Amino acid sequence: MINDSARKDLVVLLADKNTEYAVRGVLDRPDALGIRPILADLFVHLHNDPGCLREGHEFLRSFTNQYRHAIVMLDREGCGRQESTRQELEEQIEERLSNNGWAGRAAAIVLDPELEIWVWSDSPEVDNALGWLGRTPDLRNWLREQELLGEDAQKPARPKEALEQALILVRKPRSSSIYMQLAKTVSLRRCDDPAFVKFRTILKNWFAKSET
Fold this sequence. Notes:
Strand content: 5-15%
Oligomer: single chain
CATH topology of the largest domain: Rossmann fold
Largest sheet: 4 strands, parallel
Order of helices and strands: EHHEHEHEHHHHH
């Protein structure tokens, strides 16, 4: 039996570099998450979203004695099982993790439809990170003009396409650093995406601050 004190706190398996940078940025803000500082290692699966879905439990099996908890994170769009709901995919992954040494210690986060849904907060930091600060019209009004954002919608229906078109217009290259910047600056309370809420809640349950 491995001494629990010898384990690191968390291992996260992700589908791509953009998601890795976003999660690194979020985990660097323990106070904003309402958790204690943690020791975490992040890995990107070679086969991206389908690999995380089908093989995540196999990838993480060898880490069961090295980490207290594990998370698998992927996009529903592009995972090869788009006909399934976010919740159905998460349940499938979590069952496999549980059967491979992670019972009660692991969770799956499926971004629906994709990571970029986390980008579209109403924070002015989004305009800043995407190169839209001070432009007229502002980013959200431009999205509506281009019919990328519904009049009463909070987020674009196709978040990745909206992001790509916004960056093209201002001639800003799409890069993982954008996701890191957003994760480090946007208020985490502004993001009400169900997958992000689950992510934040799980972290608070696992790594609650010690009462002093």
